Amino acid sequence: MEELAEAASVFARVRPRLFGIAYRMLGSVADAEDLLQDVWLRWQTCDRSVVRNPDAFLATTTTRLAITASQTARVRHETYVGPWLPEPIDASADPQLGAERAAALEVAVLFLLEKLPPTERAAYVLREAFDYPYHQIADIVQTTEVSARQLVSRARKHLAAERRTPVEPSEQRRLLTAFVDAARTGDLATLEKLLAEDVVSYSDGGGAVRATRIPVVGAVTVAKYVRAFASRFWPGTEVGWSDVNGQPAAVVSHSGAVIAVLTVSASAEGIDRLFWLMNPAKLGAYTA
């Protein structure tokens, strides 16, 4: 019993980092928690006497299981009803994220990382979010140090190609606040001014609630789309503000229940991505 208690103590100490790795790889709190249950079982039943570095063993186990799990998750996401977006987390209230850095946590970044091969995604997460040295990344993903560097480099180039330089959080908050104000009143002219010319709006309802099932593209089209549903969506709602995945977000409630979490990605050209998280199954952190 004493040996098992020590194992539990070690696991509890490392768990925040393990959760941070698993969540970034899977974009789902439930999936990350399930994966950590598997990691715990393996840690509980393995021969711990031969494990020289428990932290490295647990991080390696978590990452390798997450690589496998993300392959299965990608298949599920391909059949998902409408755009799939990562589950939002209140970063200020959830210490389990346990990240030394806020990298690879934003909804916009997780959305792009979903497109990467799982091993490339893992290498990027380990390096950018947790500052693992390349030789350790190589050991974890079972490749050479040179290949590990290449994996991280490719991931960085992919993100740079897909995403403009983001504005500071304070400016993002200003743009988001102005967008919500204009959206609630259906102010078409202001909406168009706030949006980048090639803005894309994604709505994740998962088939459980009414939400557009295809991305809406272009400043004029998105502005008209937002105005079109203003009279149906906003009346009777209240808007609160939260730190979602390390970024400002609007939390929309109706009759005391959260119905949407809205966050944006913005650059010097304006808001270039809108993420409407509306699937009730993904709003657990905001409906408790």
From TrEMBL:
- Start and end residues of each RNA polymerase sigma factor 70 region 4 type domain: 108-159
Q: Where are the transmembrane segments?
A: none
Could you list this entry's UniProt keywords, alphabetically sorted.
Sigma factor, Transcription, Transcription regulation
UniProt domain RNA polymerase sigma-70 region: residue ranges: 11-69
Read off the InterPro entries from this record: ECF_Sigma-70_Domain, NTF2-like_dom_sf, RNA_pol_sigma-70_dom, RNA_pol_sigma-70_ECF, RNA_pol_sigma70_r2, RNA_pol_sigma70_r4_t2, RNA_pol_sigma_r2, RNA_pol_sigma_r3/r4-like
| Summary of subunit composition and partner proteins | Interacts transiently with the RNA polymerase catalytic core formed by RpoA, RpoB, RpoC and RpoZ (2 alpha, 1 beta, 1 beta' and 1 omega subunit) to form the RNA polymerase holoenzyme that can initiate transcription.
List, alphabetically, the PANTHER family matched. Answer: ECF RNA POLYMERASE SIGMA FACTOR SIGJ, SIGMA 19 FACTOR
Annotated family: Belongs to the sigma-70 factor family. ECF subfamily.
What protein name applies here? RNA polymerase sigma-70 factor
Organism the protein comes from: Amycolatopsis halotolerans
